[in-house]
Specification:
With 603 residues, the chain is mainly beta. The chain is built from 3 helices and 48 strands. The chain is elongated.
Length: 603
């Protein structure tokens, strides 16, 4: 216990001694005072050449702080608002002045969002303090008018031209451009090249965006498109104006700087569309737009050319359209294209108001449009006098010559043939212009049942596998049009038999009729014939089933006129039925379900 008591006494004694020790006075610093700010100028309008030059110097008086100047801090605040709600700050220690270059002030004004070229009043003050931010005082406010500037742009092309653009080099580089950066504060600057035809004022230029890059390329195809859109017609030579423009946003709506114009002589070519169509009163589709396809759609031959076989009507005219149903763009020529070497292809407003004239003789023509040579040619296509079908899809197989008339087409008009025939699924066939001769052939790569049919090919263009039959065996109507260069295959229904009944016949209206006297003979897949005595003043009908009145065929005329009469069915047959010829006698009646005609000829 004595030991503990001694320790406590020692601690208390030390504490007493410490409390009685004298402490020196803390250091005392005198308060400073607000500084007085002054400016070297009240108006600043620097240019880009002043970027690295001192354009403004600020001075202020000594704040008289009781410390070394190195421990004194001065913060310059600049703001357009005199209340300094969001100022730009610049800090310095010890010194009583600060200088700004043109670039420093320009960046500050840009960050404020001020438009270059316009003067703005900037309010300036200095906040002085000790280095630890104690004793802060604000100076007087000085106002300075400042005008931000922009850095000029210079556009440099890789060549001064002339440029001759060719479709065969469409994907190659035509020209390259480079330009200097034109920064404005911390804004991201975007660049675009504007293009206009010489003499234009860039009021509606072609604009090519390059983002933040300071260089860019243009391919032959792109430059050709730009030139045409700027007003240089395809195939023409003219001067193009180029300039680079900077923008402060990626919507390219606020232009900042425009470079001087660079002029380059450029020769264009007519651009190649993805598709091509023909329209006009020289065609079977007349001026209806959209046009029927594939009948009036060109086939692309190669990278530069399109071709079509089409019926052209003398005295009419036509145009070529790159987009079916759209009149925005067109191609054509001033002549009919039948001259040696063809005619020059024109585009849009260069096409004559009277459009492209058809050849002087109506017929089938092959039109070839070549966008590389900028020419179109129109040449006659010989329509065969006859057409036959051969192949293992037909009843006659590949035997040549084929059976006539069973496998001979009927010529419907000057350029169209049709036949009704049984086709075997899995087989194939060809069309021959001369029976028994393999020298020439026509056909296609599809079965022709698709909408619009298939494209008709000739000779070596016909696939080696020939034209495929439909996937289902049966009776089909095949139409081959040399006017539209197509073939069409559709399922067809023709009665198995045909009979005649009526008071113009020997059997009168008795049904069933006497056979074989009043039963037709089938001479092809779609045609029936009968020789019979007809009584003038009487009428008659054709029946597909003897003894049944369920279905009937007939017409409104006696069938003796040129071309015969139009065959009607069921309810379309006139109530008075088909009239007999005006003279009693023996006649040959021919009924054709392919042409839907019937003829009545004296014998």
């Amino acid at each position: 216990m004595k030991s503990i008591s001694k320790s406590l006494t020692a601690i208390l004694l030390l504490s007493f001694v410490a409390a009685c020790t004298k402490v020196e006075k803390l250091p005392f610093y005198e308060k400073g005072k607000s500084v007085t700010l002054s400016s070297s100028t009240t108006t600043i309008a620097p240019s880009a050449a002043d970027s690295n030059k001192v354009v403004l110097t600020l001075n202020w008086t000594d704040p008289e702080y009781a410390t070394d100047p190195s421990n004194q801090k001065f913060v310059m605040e600049m703001d357009a608002d005199q209340n300094f709600p969001a100022p730009k700050r610049f800090e310095v220690s010890g010194a009583l002045e600060y200088s700004f270059t043109g670039l420093q002030l320009n960046n500050m004004l840009a960050d404020f969002g001020f438009n270059p070229g316009d003067p703005f009043t900037i309010n300036i003050r200095v906040i002085s303090s000790y280095g630890n931010n104690n004793e802060r005082y604000a100076s007087n406010v000085v106002s300075v008018s400042m005008t931000p500037y922009l850095i000029p742009l210079t556009l440099t092309p890789s060549t001064n031209g002339p440029l001759v653009l060719g479709v065969s080099q469409a994907s190659s580089n035509a020209i390259s451009f480079s330009w200097n950066s034109s920064n404005y504060g911390n804004h991201t600057i975007y660049y675009a090249i504007q293009i206009d035809k010489a003499g234009g004022d860039f009021s509606s230029p072609v604009v090519v965006h390059y983002g933040t890059a300071t260089s860019g390329n243009m391919s032959v195809n792109d430059l050709n498109t730009y030139a045409i859109n700027a007003g240089v017609a395809g195939g023409d030579t003219d001067d193009l104006q180029f300039r680079v423009v900077s923008y402060m946003d990626d919507s390219y709506t606020t232009a900042l700087v425009k470079s001087a114009v660079v002029t380059i002589t450029t020769t264009t070519y007519v651009p190649i569309p993805d598709n091509l169509y023909i329209v006009g009163d020289a065609t079977l589709g007349w001026w209806n737009n959209p046009v029927p396809v594939p009948q009036q759609q060109f086939t692309r031959v190669d990278a530069y050319s399109f071709s079509i076989n089409v019926w052209l009507i003398a005295g009419g005219s036509y145009l070529f359209l790159p987009v079916n149903g759209d009149w925005s763009h067109k191609y054509g020529g001033a002549t009919d294209g039948t001259e040696p070497g063809g005619a020059t292809l024109l585009k849009d407003n260069a096409v004559p108001g009277s459009n492209t004239p058809a050849p002087p003789t109506t017929g089938v023509y092959k039109i070839t449009v070549n966008f590389q040579t900028n020419k179109f040619t129109v040449t006659p296509v010989q329509v065969p006098d006859n057409l036959y079908i051969v192949g293992d899809a037909t009843p006659g197989g590949w035997d040549n010559p084929v059976a006539v008339p069973a496998q001979q087409f009927t010529k419907i008009d000057a350029a169209t043939f049709a036949i009704v025939i049984n086709l075997n699924a899995g087989g194939s066939y060809l069309f021959l212009p001369v029976n028994g001769d393999w020298g020439h052939k026509f056909g296609g790569s599809t079965d022709g049942t698709e909408a619009g049919g298939g494209i008709l090919k000739a000779d070596g263009a016909v696939p080696g596998s020939n034209t495929p039959a439909p996937s289902t065996s049966g009776l089909y109507k095949i139409e081959v049009s040399f006017a539209t260069n197509t073939y069409k295959v559709t399922p067809y229904s023709v009665p198995e038999n045909l009979y005649i009944v009526g008071d113009a016949t020997p059997g009168w209206w008795n049904n069933p009729v006497p056979v074989p006297d009043q039963q037709f003979t089938r001479i092809s897949g779609s045609e029936f014939t009968l020789d019979i005595h007809l009584t003038a003043g009487g009428t008659y009908l054709f029946l597909p089933v003897n003894g049944s009145w369920d279905h009937k065929f007939g017409g409104a005329t006696d069938g003796t006129q040129a071309g015969g009469g139009d065959l009607k069915a069921d309810g379309d047959v006139p109530g008075s039925n088909t009239p007999a010829p005006g003279t009693t006698g023996n006649y040959r009646i021919n009924v054709n379900f392919l042409t839907w005609k019937y003829t009545v000829t004296p014998i």
